[in-house]
């Protein structure tokens, strides 16, 4: 096996080492770009929803909440774009160093190759080669000298090809470097525009917040009233679920109101549902989460807390609620203060789609992934089309963000 000269080894090691870095960086860049596009889409959706409701009279608090969601999404977008720019800066610096190193190595390779060509030229005459062979002390030595001459010629040809390949690699690095610089310039320009929009929204929000601060007690009272309405709706959902469990268990002779008695088929369905945690689709085709799961301080009036057993998602007027997983419709019921609710059972898991103005399924129906269950109601006072979405395991409340992909 032929041993490569030290210079050539160094060049090849450089390709391998930096090539690995490029693959790793590419994966990170792809993730960041995907996240950046998601945030841009979310901001566009928030803008669209705000624009569609501009003609309706909205409370100052609602307007500030909408602005707050837009500002937080914009701040995330700026952060992701900065990460992309920093990653590109690292790659640009890395490529610049690689180019400089490759140029030095190619100069050295060309010098060695030039010396080899020169020596070969001085001894290239047919007479010199014949004399070299005839001066051999034995046939074996002559044979070895012949083989050496062939190997030397092949090595010279190989080294010439390696110089050509290295030159082509250098051209690729230069092309990538120019492309990366253009990408970075584009990101910086986009970030500049995003920051300008963020500044305008922040100024508008501060003006509105100032008016809220002057009447904080009044707005806190509004928030508490709204929370009482949410709590009342959540209690109704809890009661419906317990009644549904009791009714389902009655057939198997169980009196439990808290845990489903599962058949082997239902256990398999529940296991399948659980195995898809974090990968399930959104219950709407397009939307923005306006209230998250659990107890949290109000985003504007920090002295007041809000709580939700599920999430609330604003979507387009006429938007449909769709099943996030296959299962059976266990309940279709009216909920005071939230129109109608459809509950779909997946073994001992239940997904709830609440605040529907129209329902397309009936109790006992088998539904498939992505099937439309009903049309989401639009508020006559705010103009917002909001789905109340919940996930339970028996009577235990689950955070939908843990189950839905990128919620």
Task: Please provide a brief summary of the model.
With 407 residues, this protein is of the alpha+beta class. The chain has two domains: 6-214, no CATH class; 262-402, Glucose Permease (Domain IIA) (Distorted Sandwich), CATH 2.70.70. The chain contains six helices and twelve strands.
What does this structure look like?
The chain is built from 6 helices and 12 strands. The chain is α+β, with helices and mostly antiparallel strands. Strand 7 (340-346) and strand 8 (349-359) form a beta hairpin. Helix 1 runs antiparallel to helix 2 (60-122). The two termini are 57 Å apart. The model is unreliable at 1-25 (pLDDT under 50).
Q: What summary fits the major beta sheet?
A: 10 strands, antiparallel
- Tally of DSSP β-strands: 12
| Principal-axis shape | elongated
Strand % is 15-25%
Count structural domains: 2
Total helical elements: 6
Poorly predicted runs: 1-25
The assigned structural class equals alpha+beta
Radius of gyration: 35 Å
Proportion of helical residues: 55-70%
What is the N-to-C order of secondary-structure elements (H for helix, E for strand)?
HHHHHHEEEEEEEEEEEE
Average of the residue pLDDT scores: 81
Distance N to C terminus: 57 Å
